[in-house]
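Exercise 7. Predict the joint structure of the components listed below.
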Amino acid sequence: MENRNTLLLTAMFTPALVVFTAFFLLPLARLAVESSLGPSGVGIYIAAITTPRYLETLGYTVFLSAGVTLVTLVVSGVSGVFLARNEFRGRSLLVSLLTFPLAFPGVVVGFMIILLAGRQGLIGDITGCLFGAKVVLAYSMTGLFLGYLYFSIPRTITTLMASAEKMDRSLEEAARSLGASPWRVTRDVLIPALVPGLISSGAICFATSMGAFGTAFTLATHIDVLPIVIYTEFTLMANIAMAAALSIFLGAITWAALSVARAVAGNTVAAAG
Amino acid sequence: MKRRFSPAFTAQLGLTLAVCGFLIVPVVQSVVAGLTENFMVGVKSGLTLRWFVKVWGLYRETIALSILIGLACLACALLLGVPAAYAMVKRQNRLTRLFEELLVTPLAVPGLAIALALIVHYGAFTAFRRSWAFILAGHVIFTLPFMVRSVIAIMHAIRLKDLEEGAASLGAGFGRRFVQIVIPNAVPGILAGALMVFTLSIGEFNLTWMLHTPQTKTLPVGLADSYASMRLEIGSAYTIVFFLMIIPLLVAMQWVAKPRPRTFVMEAIAPATALPDRRAVFPPAADRSDEPVTGSGTALRLQGCAKTFADGTRALEPFDLSVEAGETVVILGPSGCGKTTLLRIIAGLESPDPGGRVYFGGEDVTEVPIERRNVGMVFQSYALFPNMTVAENIAYGLKVRGVDTARRNRRVSQMLEMMKIGELRNRPIDQLSGGQKQRVALARAIAIRPRVLLLDEPLTALDAKLRDALRVEIDGLLRSLGITAIYVTHDQAEAMALGDRIVVMNIARVAQVGTPREIYFAPRTRFVAEFIGTINRLKGRVQGDRLILPGGSLPLLGRVRGPADGEIELFFRPEHARLVDPGQGGLPATVAASFFMGDRTRLLLEGAAEGGLTIETAGNRCFRKGQRVEVVVDPDALLRLDA
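Solution:
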């Protein structure tokens, strides 16, 4: 009977495994193989990190993603804890509005930034009125930064709100009963309790930013981020080997970021429990 | 609240509002732009819906295709993801853990890379490459992890194992459990996952942009086209269409995620008269003709049942036990002594190590799974099915057995009446108090006329007063039903009150088997004596017919006389000692502490024996710390025990 159940469970599990293998594992393996089939063979990876253009792009992308992650964590951390801790009129409307952009694809986010900071954008109009010169941010590094913030904040706020709600309030009350000031409570109790949530949502934020394509695509900035370079290598230059190699680089970076975060946050969680 | 107006509150609110403005202002702008004749001129150029007409003409096919792919993707995620999630929760082995790890990777690998991989691998299959199924494949890989994780989370949250064991004890097999217990209780997680999958699929761009062809354009692809080449107004109108599509999905997601208000149920303590109604148990001859309350109990025999877990832990040493038909045997022991393992072996939830056998009557049931053993089981967590009402829970085992509706209803009524919970018939499970749940769990287990009733710490989750009331009730029930019952507990009072016999266990072994009186008055080891009640130890030397202690001496009866001049340890219960006036030949002692317990006073005495003594006297006597007293112990009650 036990064996029959094992058999049935395996049967339930197999279709997902097959589909996953066919449409994810095999293609990725093929991509890895394909990257080394170009004229320079495995040397393409060395070419990828020694060519100044690619290296510069990689640097930009990492720098941008890290910056976005940092700002997102600070902003979402404050707002998320605030929303989890306070009951006031209009709170649920505020939460709904903050999470609305959660489902926006990158292209829509790009469009939102164009509306906000583009040539006909709101910021341009306001600065035009005030200073007589239109400020256009959308197509620069700032535009990309704003766009990445735009899609990162809603996701991060929801996760951090959830972890703030799960926090044991009696810990804070205990700290206050022992004479800790609000600032000390924040530093000694609140932030340590949030750390696992901050690490994991920060890692997801970083990974998403690294791989974001739609926003940069819509904004069509002068600054190339890695996904755009992969796209142009593939479609315009037909340099499949380089596109594959860069994709694998990109995948490796995001995967590593997530694994490190999981290892670290996991340990913290275990220690706290 | 004062801190609502504190600077910290204001600053946080300000930041949150600023973020909200950053996110929502462009949304408002796009809505305005989509409705305005000429956005460059502004709203004064007039409002119009003509851009929507344009969008409909240009892009309706992309909208239709997105919905089609979204639904197909949802179907795939449900069919692949839900069974896989269940298998992963149930079977924790290297393969499932590896797959769980792998399932996260599509979240880590950028969509662009996945798309590139798919194109490189399947690009040559042009029919596939050009169809929307190609996009679907990408979406399924991208969304499957969300579905699986959502379902795994809910399955961990609903104590799936308990519910499934409950269903199995009532006779439900694998398929029935999956369809009737697992799926209905996982619905919130499945729903949340489904909404997520559909929303993600509708809005997916990174993968889709690479995978699409001019014939297979989805909504986000169309959006990108319109932003790149069309007027701002058309792009905005198209964006509004997208908003209108996702708003219901987001609202539904919030609704699913919202915690349901839990009905608070007051615990009504059953009055002492609420014994199970014997008239219901043995109804008048007229209506009991074809429906006896229970089948006759079966004798039970365990032979050499040992249990070693996969990690090598020995949970149970080879164990033999015979239980007569209709007998109630209580398995008593501290937590971790193996008593629950023993019960699970009897139930069929665990199998004994090779060589061990379980017999019900004459039948060897060792290889029979729980769903075919016909046992009634009451779980510590009750394991009542939250997706069913009280009556449906009680009827479940009968339904599994194919009993027709009329007889099922009659049996449910009989059970409800017997447990005095008729008014709860149509209540959902989450609106019951702990005591009520306990009654439903008992009714459900008895309804199937089990051969053996198994109770796993059924009262542990209840508070003290209710526990006492229900203990009386269960005792009455077991006696009047004449059912064979195995009752596991760590509470000695429960064991004494309920058991015809008690099996005391200690670290995977039987310490003693006997009637409650034997266990209490003639414990065989110190462990048993100390586990049941309080026991005092006297350590001294035997001289003639007296026991010489550091502070004095006590008379002995012949049978405990030890080796001459040897050290000896003797034990007695607190109630077998009394205080005498000084000078009457008692053992002198000093009161170290006294606890007034109402009907009696418990005294801790020092000076009389190593480690102190605990004795009991009448409640109306007062003692103060340091008071000198003398103690006499009934020589009949002195016990010698093995270590």
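Discussion. Chain B touches chain A through 87 residues (CB under 8 Å).
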